[in-house]
Records
---
Amino acid sequence: MHSTMSDNTAPGYYSRHIFFCLNERPNGEDCCHLHGAKEGFDHCKRAVKDAGLAGKGQVRVNKAGCLDRCAAGPVAVVYPEGTWYTFVDTADIDEIVESHLKHGQVVERLLVPPELGR
Ligand code: FES
């Protein structure tokens, strides 16, 4: 029997997914790329792997284009919770990995304010 779109009880291939905006705009226009997005992404990939969290049933770290919340950049979003983070350095990424990706605990101090969009 095939599952349907409304069948959301099956476990996902990954338990959590984190997407980093790596958007780079031409002509030096402001974008996450100018605020350390790539460094954050690379560090997160490594940290997730080093923590033994990478792979099926666990955590996947992915690149994304503009997530349309540029004013808070650099940004990353964690699913299934839909938690939006901003970060300034690799210590922030370590905290997101250890607290949220490993233990499911949101890092309140790094949350993107709800009103910040593009
Ligand atoms: S450039 Fe990163 S959210 Fe738009």
---
Amino acid sequence: MSLHQLVYLSQSTRKMSKEYLLALLKQAKANNAAIDVTGSLFYNGGWFMQVLEGPEATLAALYAKITKDPRHHDTRLLYKEPAAYRTFVRWSMNMTNLEDRQADKYEQLVEVIEAAKAGRKINAISPAVTLLNLFKS
Ligand SMILES: Cc1cc2nc3c(=O)[nH]c(=O)nc-3n(C[C@H](O)[C@H](O)[C@H](O)COP(=O)(O)O)c2cc1C
């Protein structure tokens, strides 16, 4: 089935502690590995931005499940397109917590989430594509 990438933005219902984030990550990793999904999750203390990669129908079902999760709300689908390659090929799910200011690509990722929240582009490129471009090898 054809490979797709999906990117969404959502607001965390309450502030997620490190322990909660790790529990979420563990759950996502285990589930995604079993359904051939890869991706990355970014959290800035109030908002999530997540990239999901996998077969189109699998992503549709997973996204439907994720949007119902009470740990977040105001889910906004930013991007859903076919892809030739996976950007996060090594990760059933990776996580970057931007509360850690030392995080790799910290400045760019903060800007990507702020632009997504505001619905604006970054140098004429959508935040979702900017995010994917940041991690393209
Ligand atoms: C921000 C966020 C990202 C999530 N990402 C994933 C994910 O990548 N894969 C996944 O299976 N579940 C993810 N979840 C959890 C799902 O919403 C759901 O709780 C979980 O898949 C249920 O797992 P279970 O069917 O094993 O009980 C995420 C939840 C949140 C709040």
